[in-house]
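Researcher: Excuse me, tokens okay?
***
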Amino acid sequence: MSMGAGDVPDLVVRSRRAVLPDGERPAAVAVRGGRIAGVHAYDADLTAAEQVDLGHVALLPGLVDSHVHVNEPGRTHWEGFASATRAAAAGGVTTIVDMPLNSLPPTVNTAALAAKRRAADGQCRVDVAFWGGAIPGNLADLRPLHEAGVRGFKCFLSPSGVDEFPPLDLDGLRAAMVEIASFDGLLVVHAEDPALLADPAGPGYREFLASRPGESERRAVERVAELAGETGVRTHILHVSSALCLEPLADARRRGVRLTAETCPHYLTLAAEDVPEGATQFKCCPPIRSAANRDELWRGLADGLLSCVVSDHSPSTPDLKVPDFAAAWGGISSLQLGLTAVWTEASRRGHGLGDVVRWMAAGPAALAGLRGKGALAEGADADLVAFDADAPHTVDVAALHHRNPVTPYHGRTLTGVVRTTWLRGRAVGEDPRGSLL
């Protein structure tokens, strides 16, 4: 959408650290009508209604978080669209994809999708898309959900934690794969083998971690890869926490299986050795594992076996985070903090902002089929982030925007501060201007 001679941009944002698809360099991004009209030299002579010069503050594309549990309607006291999208914008995330469970009803048919959209309409500060769910008994609902616009279908192989979203057995998984492949849809899988899971033998983190061994993830990934190869369905493994999954992912790639995978900020930045006893704000499923395992996940990112880093923001009310790892709700709240948490660790390990943008913007956008998202490129949506990559900040849970003040990052000093977030060329403020995709 190159500008004509008489076209004047609505906005020009300049940065000496613009993170573009071909690398990081000085640039001026011109915006017209909510889209990027051109990417120019930093000192280009451009006239615009508004000019912003960030200097050495980095300019990133808006991040895409394809793994967010908003929980509205039904459990809005856990999290809702207004609070979740406010937190997203504060963290540089301009598009979220909402998971189908923890809301009531879960998004497993078109009526539930319509209810979800009604709940979200008019509340969102960023753009919102939706996953559907694949559960026992809703095989006939999958194609209608796809035609209604969901980005794919989530299933569990082990209990989800909520009774209204039961797992698929292997026959059910195969049937869902065959149906989803028939319209070239996408299946996203919570991959833990239930046969290798157990009730924790005590209330501590060590017992909880032992109850969900890495081998349970590996075995589930192997079975998913086998069935994905047989059926030809596009498949994605959610929130990989165990480095044991890297070998079967690599094997699937060698065999041409359409299988991708993601991991999450907490698996890349936290370690089991550092989880205090009773600190159930660290509890998630699958669990945070050892520091050595964390190093291997970073290797998987560098090698491209893990293509996305997304939050798996799964909040709850504080009363559900009882100081007993066997009984507490499993989910980590980090939607607002993912960029700074990952950048803090990535930069320490020698990665650049281009890597972070690939993992947290371009990768999730491609996964969810969100055209025009995740890149500073002509014709893309003008979703922009001014990111002060060298500025430190200490996390204060009381200053976060998600609904309930629970996060394992409280008190941690992280590097990088989001200064401004623009959605389609307009700075995100208190007005809910997000669209439902």
Residues 193 and 220 are 5 Å apart (CA to CA). The mean pLDDT is 97. Residues 214-231 form the longest helix (18 residues). Residues 11-56 form one domain.
